[in-house]
Amino acid sequence: MTGGQAKGGGAGRTRTLAFWTIPLSLLVLGIKLLAWHLTGSVALLSDALESIVNVVAAIAAFVAIVYAAKPADHDHQFGHHKAEYISAVIEGVAIVVAALLIFKEAIGELFDPSMPTDVGLGLGVNIFASLVNGVWAYVLISAGRSMRSPALVADGKHIRTDVVTSVGVVIGLGIALATGYPIFDPLIALAVAAHILFAGWQLIAESVGGLMDAALTGDEEDAIRKAILDNADGSSDVHDLKTRRAGSAAFIDFHLVVSEDMTVGEAHDICDRLEGAIKKAIPGSTLAIHVEPEGVKPHGVRVRID
């Protein structure tokens, strides 16, 4: 016995946030290119290179979120939710590419360092871009987590790595100016690149987990069990509980044991009650409840009903 999936009310907001990330990323890119042009700093150039990747990633995230929101069709009967995970993997790869570009520029400058010029103005421009990025990263990550949008969270984390890059750049240039040794400029760029590379790897690993049908969190499964225990009156057992997460959607499957003498209508009423309670506990969930008579040997994860 199955239940339909409720549509997420935050889909429109998710698309809106993803869309505005594109012009915002272009604006930040322009500001950082200006900072590099004013100073000639390889660290600022590495920062701008990462912002180019941000623009590409923002476009990919928007396309994925729009596609993921499409309703189920004949060829994709469980919906298009996993498109967001694909976008998140792409963003992770983009972060790694940005780190490698920074490595390339920084290593080249390491053997022939030069002191940047007009550093004060360049840093001021770069700091402004970082503030814009920092605020927007917080908005995207918070909204993405609340609406269970992997693409939006990935986009926010990507932008947050850009903020870390900028902080590293400011520190590197500050040390270079204070000591008179320009080599600190590429050295800090290398350190920032290493951090970005690690962040990209983490994002790829998390996103691949979603593509591999990772189960719901322990807290979510506890909420499901509580909903079952509180609303399964009339049945004698629940077993073989399975869950998986696909973007904003959750898929829940379990077996419901009832008396052999129970009518189909009575069993259906219990399923309706369980479905309503579980969807309230786990918004956006789709259920498959398999009704079976007493006497069938249970297997899998059990939820005891006393």
Automatic annotation (TrEMBL):
The keyword Nucleotidyltransferase does not apply. It holds the Pfam family ZT_dimer. Keywords: Cell membrane, Membrane, Transmembrane, Transmembrane helix, Transport. GO terms for biological process: intracellular zinc ion homeostasis. Residues 217-294 form the Cation efflux protein cytoplasmic domain. The chain crosses the membrane at residues 17-39, 51-69, 85-103, 123-141, 162-181, 187-204. It comes from the Bacteria. InterPro entries: Cation_efflux (IPR002524), Cation_efflux_CTD (IPR027470), Cation_efflux_CTD_sf (IPR036837), Cation_efflux_TM (IPR058533), Cation_efflux_TMD_sf (IPR027469), CDF_Transporter (IPR050291). One of its GO terms (molecular function) is zinc efflux antiporter activity. Residues 24-212 form the Cation efflux protein transmembrane domain. This is Protein p34.
